[in-house]
Write a structure and sequence with these properties.
Elements: H1 2-9, H2 12-24, E1 29-32, E2 48-52, E3 55-63, E4 73-79, E5 90-96, E6 102-107, E7 116-127, E8 131-132, H3 138-156, H4 190-199, H5 209-217, H6 224-252, H7 260-283, H8 297-300, H9 306-318, H10 329-340
Parallel strand pairs: 1-4
Antiparallel strand pairs: 2-3, 3-7, 4-5, 5-8, 6-7
Helix pairs in contact: 1-2, 1-3, 3-7, 6-7, 7-9, 7-10
The chain binds flavin-adenine dinucleotide (FAD).
Length: 362
């Protein structure tokens, strides 16, 4: 998200200094967009940045900052002109996270993890050289970040390998010095695997593969409701993959599909909800067992259903996240309606009013 934003709105010097380390994984960027009073209504943000010489001084609070506790850099949007209409007084910065003016406080979610944080900025500083795009024109850069966030989520659902099986970017977690092999699963005997694979009939893989395996283990493959859910998961997963491939092909020809980032994200939200319900339907009462402490997950994996059941319960608890982050389902639908289908805007458009004259809490 940071690299394409900097790459689109940068100077050459910024491209080398701020994008290259994000691409190599040397920098981990977090996204300092949402605030307690500005989520869906992001352009209503109140975090202030004021220029003094070559340094911007930043004061305000951000919230729901995923990975803020591991970040070297933050994609910060802050208000730089409160007298301009709300979209025209915002500037985008790449700010160093490890500095005295920034305090990061983790927030624990119902999954048991603390993926996101509150971030307090108290006279935090960012050099003008780290401003991406023109002063007060940060809304353009913000839309670039959001576009890449949504299309990325639509393509892969924001998922990733389990902790310990995936190298994480940045200097804070300490993965930079490790070798790729350190993240590979423990080696098993190749000959034993091959003999087993030769004996088993080859099945084509499906986006619903883990649910198929789980249903087999729980003796529910013949349950018509479960079968229906599996087929739906297969169809929606396949449509999602084909949409991503179609979009890539169109982009490679220099074209675009209007609204694709938004409706791909909406589709992915449907997929995670469907997978949540399907997993719980297969697991039955076993689905109520979840260990909130990572250290004990190994014990849970010894229960019926093994690691697949552990993954299904974690997925069910985490399924509420994707339909919210990167812009909620309702906001995606508003954007598709207004920008893609050309429907009239919501009544009461305040976009021309200076930010400091907007009704507050209205
Ligand atoms: C797991 C997770 C990770 C996140 N990570 C980050 C991060 O790294 N960085 C970051 O900046 N933010 C992050 N967020 C924040 C996320 O972007 C916001 O939660 C989201 O934009 C919604 O804002 P809100 O929570 O303030 O809800 P609100 O904006 O208060 O919305 C509340 C409800 O009202 C509905 N609503 C609001 N406005 C409208 C409207 N105009 N029309 C119809 N319905 C409307 C919404 O759809 C929602 O149902 C994360 C959120 C989650 C859940």
């Amino acid at each position: 998200m940071a690299a394409p934003t900097v790459a689109t709105h940068r100077t050459q010097e910024q491209l080398d200094r701020l994008t290259a380390p994000a691409v190599t994984g040397k920098f981990h960027y977090c996204q300092l967009f949402s605030e307690p009073g500005a989520g869906s209504h992001l352009a209503g943000l109140t975090c202030r940045a004021e220029l003094d010489g070559d340094l911007w001084h930043v004061n305000g609070q951000k919230v729901w900052t995923s990975g803020g506790q591991y970040a070297d850099m933050g994609m910060l949007i802050a208000r730089t002109n409160p007298e301009a209409p709300k979209h025209q007084g915002i500037t985008w910065f790449a700010i160093e996270m490890i500095q005295p003016g920034i305090e990061v406080r983790p927030l624990k979610e119902m999954t048991g993890h603390a993926m996101f944080n509150e971030v307090f900025l108290t006279d935090a500083v960012v050099p003008d050289a780290n401003r991406i795009g023109d002063v007060n024109n940060g809304w353009a850069a913000t839309n670039t970040t959001l576009l890449h966030e949504r299309s990325g989520m639509g393509a892969r659902g924001g998922g990733g390998a389990p902790v310990g099986r995936m190298a994480r970017a940045g200097s804070v977690v300490g993965d930079l010095d490790k070798r790729a092999g350190d993240f590979a699963p423990p080696r098993r005997s190749v000959t034993a695997d091959k003999a087993k694979a030769d004996k088993e009939p080859r099945r084509p893989s499906s986006p619903a593969q883990s649910h198929i395996e789980l249903a087999r283990q729980f003796g529910k493959l013949d349950d018509p409701v479960v079968r229906q859910g599996i087929v739906q998961a297969h169809i929606l997963g396949t449509i999602s993959r084909l949409t991503t491939e179609r979009h890539k092909a169109v982009r490679s020809q220099g074209g675009d599909i209007p609204g694709v980032a938004n409706f791909s994200k909406l589709l992915m939200a449907d997929i995670v909800r469907l997978n949540r319900d399907l997993g719980m339907q297969i697991l039955g009462a076993r689905g109520m067992l979840h260990d909130y402490d990572d250290a004990n997950r190994g014990e849970m994996a010894k229960l019926p259903g093994g690691p697949l059941a552990v993954a299904a319960t974690s997925q069910a608890l985490g399924a509420q996240a994707l339909p919210i982050y990167g812009g909620t389902d309702q906001i995606q639908k508003n954007i598709v309606g207004e920008r893609t289908l050309g429907l009239p805007k919501e009544p009461g458009d305040l976009s021309k009013l200076p930010f400091n004259e907007l009704p507050k809490n209205g």
